[in-house]
Write a structure and sequence with these properties.
The protein has a seven-stranded mixed β-sheet with strand order 6-5-4-3-2-1-22. The protein has 609 residues and is α/β, with parallel strands linked by helices. The chain is built from 16 helices and 29 strands. The termini are far apart.
Length: 609
């Protein structure tokens, strides 16, 4: 029996380092190739030795698919392609291809130039890696080879994010990457058609969360920021370069304009310009509201938000700073945090999920003292706030996608083990389908069923269709013979055609049932006329034939035996459903009429007495 195999090299019962190995129809596909932000050793990249202990991966992997530009989904890509070795195609959307190398270069600079790490990819290797990329448009079916095709669907989440359907023969898998089922100020909601894949591999970052209304969250966010700066405090908002950063910038820009506030808002130098450029370039990937207003006003040209210089961190007075990266694991956001953390007047607002091991995760779990390089200790006295502006689907959104997609099986990745358990039970209960949550390195095998297409003889099909049943909505049973053709193909023909082709004598078995009716030899024509009338009213068929003594439809023959006051209905095996239906109809109607006549006669006799 055909099967689909899935092994997570990353994101199995964990958030970060997304990398899923999929085997479908004999093809091996790598879904995402990310890094883990909670590790700085060899654990930050997937264990590619699982694919092969030595040598390049090219002969073992047919293609790589990258869902979006976040580093936990693409951060290991140059390492895999250039250092481990892979020369095959890498599929992603056009916005992802444009933004991915910029984030990879920023990541490389932080890791190599500032931390001094070795065994890391170079700028040149990032360029060589991106040359292997093949871009995919939304809803475009791309043929990877003669047997495999992929199709991208809009995922929301960040600019250019896509869900991918992979199809090989009759087997298909949908991989979601990260997605958001709720539209926001600058991106639309994820969408997929009812493609009924054998397996849906979905993220489950917020497997147990159902968010409150976006309007309430936005109001709470603005209230906290305003309250802090009003008291002269500084607000740090760690964000990733593109995504929630733009969403929150638009929100603060509108609020500052409305409230006529003069407190400075800063964004890490250079990123606003880059974001602006890419949102203009890929305007078709944004929300309907942005598309409508773009010609009149560019929502990404901010009046109140200015570029940030690192010297500003020491300036006295209130300010709001958007700084990268989003989990306080490195970069400028971490540097600013170390300066502002000891003051109770200041505030840090974490607007998204923080991976275990990052500073963001530690302070959200109540850490009051942190140790940095050179054993430097920092007291955490500033206010720590978590507000979920994350662009991941919550539990309700995940269930909505499953309902929309109609898969036969579901697999949860990119989530925490305990939370996955809750969602797994919910999926199994509500949809009645199998749900898996493999750990990293665990293999899941899913058996699939294949349909064999078989041509049907046109004359046989027409004859079977014309037989007609009382309820056209009921499934119809066809009686035919499956024959193997000379070229090892198959076809379905009528029994008569099969007997003829095989050179055999045909033997026909007929079934006959009868019931008593009130009639004499002079009533025969009336009874058959009544039979014909009942059949015309209750059966949708034009194949009725009549004579002085019989009525027939296909092989069903209705005959009156006046001498025994019996109506006989006979049929061949292939018309069993039709024959039984006609017999039951006539018996019910004619026997009922007989009973009514008998009752009328009894009443008449009683009156006469």
């Amino acid at each position: 029996m055909p099967e689909i195999r899935v092994v997570p090299l990353g994101a199995g019962q964990d958030v970060g380092r997304s990398c899923i190995l999929l085997t479908i129809g004999g093809k091996n596909i790598m879904l995402d190739c990310g890094m883990h932000m909670g590790f700085n050793d060899e654990r930050r990249f997937p264990d590619f030795s699982y694919v092969t202990k030595e040598g390049p991966l090219t002969e073992y992997i047919d293609c790589v698919i990258i869902s979006h530009f976040h580093l936990d989904h693409c951060g290991a890509l140059p390492y895999m392609s250039e250092l481990v070795g892979y020369d095959g195609p890498i599929y992603m959307t056009q916005p992802t291809k444009a933004i991915c190398p910029i984030l990879l270069e920023d990541y490389r600079k932080i890791t190599v130039e500032k931390k001094g790490e070795t065994n890391f990819f170079t700028s040149e290797q990032i360029k060589l890696c991106m040359k292997k990329v093949v871009t995919v448009n939304l809803h475009q079916v791309v043929r990877v080879d003669d047997e495999m095709e992929i199709k991208a669907y809009y995922a929301g989440h960040v600019l250019g994010a896509a869900m991918f359907q992979i199809r090989v023969g009759q087997d298909s898998v949908v991989y979601t990457g990260d997605y958001n089922m709720t539209p926001d100020r600058h991106l639309g909601a994820a969408w997929i058609d009812q493609c009924r894949p054998d397996l849906l591999i979905t993220e489950s970052t917020y497997a147990t969360t159902i968010r409150d209304s976006k309007r309430c969250r936005e109001r709470d966010f603005l209230k906290k920021v305003h309250s802090c700066v009003e008291k002269g405090g500084k607000v740090l908002i760690p964000v990733f370069a593109l995504g929630r950063a733009q969403e929150l910038c638009i929100l603060l820009e509108m609020y500052w304009e409305r409230m006529n506030l003069k407190v400075p808002i800063y964004f890490t130098l250079g990123l606003t310009e880059k974001a602006n450029h890419y949102y203009q370039l890929f305007i078709t990937w944004t929300s309907q509201n942005i598309k409508k207003t773009f010609t009149d006003r560019n929502m990404f040209e901010f009046k109140h938000i200015k570029p940030f210089d690192k010297s500003y961190a020491d300036n006295p007075g209130a300010m709001v700073v958007f700084a990268t990266p989003g989990m306080l694991h490195a970069g400028q956001s971490l540097q600013i945090f170390r300066k502002w953390a000891p003051s109770e007047n200041n505030m840090v607002i974490l607007p998204g999920y923080c991976v275990t091991g990052t500073i963001g995760h530690k302070i959200l779990n109540g850490a009051k003292k942190l140790e940095f390089e050179n054993k430097q200790m920092v007291d955490v006295k500033l206010s720590v706030q978590y507000m979920s502006f994350s662009a991941h689907a919550d539990a309700k959104g995940i269930m909505q996608l499953i309902s929309q997609c109609q898969p036969k099986n579901v697999m949860l990745v990119h989530g925490e083990d305990e939370k996955m358990d809750f969602l797994k039970q919910k999926v199994q209960k509500e949809f009645g389908i199998e749900c898996y949550k493999p750990a990293n390195g665990e293999t899941i095998i899913i058996r699939t069923e294949h349909n064999v297409p078989v041509p049907i003889s046109r004359t046989f099909l027409k004859r079977e269709e014309s037989s007609g049943l009382p309820d056209p909505k009921r499934p119809k049973l066809f009686h035919g013979v499956l024959l193997m053709t000379r070229n090892n193909g198959w076809k379905v023909v009528s029994p008569e055609e099969a007997v003829r082709e095989a050179g055999l004598n045909e033997h026909v078995i007929r079934f006959t049932s009868s019931f008593n009716i009130d009639c004499d030899s002079s009533d025969g024509a009336k009874v058959l006329a009544r039979v014909q009338d009942l059949l015309e009213k209750n059966l949708e068929t034009s194949e009725m034939q009549t004579s002085d003594e019989t009525v027939s439809i296909n092989s069903v023959l209705i005959q009156l035996d006046s001498s025994r006051s019996e109506l006989l209905v006979s049929w061949s095996f292939q018309d069993e459903a039709l024959g039984s239906c006609i017999f039951n109809l006539l018996k019910q109607k004619l026997s009922g009429e007989r009973a009514e006549r008998a009752e009328r006669n009894q009443r008449s006799e009683r009156r006469d007495r």
